[in-house]
Write a structure and sequence with these properties.
Blueprint: E1 4-9, E2 21-26, E3 29-34, E4 40-45, E5 49-55, H1 58-62, E6 65-72, E7 80-86, H2 88-106
Antiparallel strand pairs: 1-2, 2-3, 3-4, 5-6, 6-7
Length: 120
């Protein structure tokens, strides 16, 4: 079983974790679980993540929160948002670092590195 590196819930007003959306980051995958009565669980392998960016609205800043936009090559999940989490900058940095580690382990080269390559 892969080690859990980070987990949190989507925060609501005042930064309280009163939500049924849960996020979990392991060494190889990111998991997104939504719902109480009816739940959906999605996962994306980290090497499929292409880009990670952070946005923080004024209200989120007031309560120490931020949202992380993730661009993914995963067909079922596509791009997604990790909404209103605590210590969002540290989470974004951790996610970026683990994604790079997984790409190196799997020998994956991102599309952005292939743009100037001529295969003739």
């Amino acid at each position: 079983m892969a080690q859990t590196l980070w987990k949190d819930r989507k925060r609501t007003i005042f930064g309280l974790p009163w939500s049924f959306t849960k996020y979990t980051l392991t060494e190889e995958k990111f998991f997104l679980r939504k719902g109480f009565w009816n739940t959906t669980e999605d996962e994306v392998r980290l090497y499929r993540i292409l880009d990670v960016s952070l946005s923080r609205s004024f209200r989120e800043k007031l309560f120490g929160l931020g949202s992380i936009k993730v661009s993914s090559a995963d067909k079922s999940m596509g791009d997604f948002l990790i909404k209103r989490v605590k210590k969002s900058k540290k989470v974004r940095d951790l996610l970026s670092h683990v994604v790079e580690d997984q790409r190196n382990v799997k020998g994956i080269i991102g599309r952005e590195f292939l743009e100037g390559v001529n295969y003739d």
